[in-house]
Amino acid sequence: MKRRERATVTTVGLLAAAYNVAVNRVLPQASHVPANLAVAITLTTLGRKAAHASWSDLGLGRAQVRRGLDVGIRSSLVSAALVGAALVVPKTRPFFADERVLKPSSAAAAYEVGVRIPFATALPEEIVFRGVLLGVLSRSHSAATSIAWTSTLFGLWHLLPTLDMMRTNPAGDLLPKGPVGHTVALGGVTLATGAAGVVFAWMRNRSGSVLAPFMAHTTLNAAAYLGGRAFAAPGRVGASTSQDTLAVRHRSAPEWSWADAKVWAINEAAS
User: Of 78, 82, 128, 271, which shows the fewest CB atoms inside 10 Å?
Assistant: First the structure.
């Protein structure tokens, strides 16, 4: 790797890690949308200036928008289908019955789906991981190496939300107690979200634009949220009854994340 690119990737990675701690442990939830977007813009500017990268290098070029839309629409349909399949299966449906999904008002749910999921989660993450980091690494490394590095970092990005999930999500009840349970959850989520990062990076490289993974990422999270409200609540048509649904515990974690969906998928596969 060229010295300039190495320095850029290291700096962006360290700043992202520091911000990950801040957003999960310090910043109030109300600040997440503007703060996350501001960090994404800052790291994009840093990537462009420090590595002398173009907008196209970072997957943000206008020439790639049409292709990004094409790949994004098809990938979003697949994402929605995957969530739908999980909602149909009785063993996985209860894990959508999250209090943060079921309890908010209709107005709050609309904000969640229309604002927070796309602009506080999907867009900043795709810009940082599939835009800046993948774009800069790809200038001096093979696609496989660049995807491996950025996907590993994407997996590590979800460690703190996973710790919150273990305390507050029914999936945590399926894990062994103590250090073993933490190790299983953290290792499983890192692998699962890293694998998701590989898929998102493939979409980005396939289309040349971060628009494609942004659309798929948003659709996946939004479909999980809406699906939980529509089908997983006790008393709804097709919802599990109280006898076969794990008790929904209060959620204090800031957002519905990939970590939530991946942990219950890992545990169900292992059971």
Answer: 271
Q: How far apart are the first and last CA of the chain?
A: 43
Q: Residue 27 contacts by C-beta under 8 Å, 6 or more apart in sequence?
A: 35
Distance of CA 91 to the CA centre of its chain: 23
Residues 190-247 have pLDDT tens digits of 999 999 999 999 999 999 999 999 999 999 999 999 998 888 666 554 554 444 444 4
Instruction: Pull the structure tokens for residue 34.
Output: 């503007």
Please state the length of the chain: 271
Task: Using CB atoms within 10 Å of the CB of residue 177, give its burial: 0 to 12 exposed, 13 to 18 middle, 19+ buried.
Answer: exposed
Q: pLDDT averaged over consecutive 10-residue blocks of the chain (271 residues)?
A: 87 96 94 97 96 96 97 98 93 77 89 96 98 96 96 94 69 69 82 95 98 98 92 60 42 42 42 35
Q: Residue 213 corresponds to which amino acid? A: P
Encode 232-245: b = buried (16+ Cβ within 10 Å), e = exposed.
bbeeeeebbeeeeb
Closest residue by Cα to residue 149 from 196, 185, 198, 106: 198
Domains held by the chain: number: 1
Q: What is the pTM of this model?
A: 0.84
150 Cβ contact list (under 8 Å, min separation 6): 129, 130, 133, 134, 137, 197, 201
Closest CA to 41 of 60, 20, 57: 60
Position of tokens 């939004």?
222
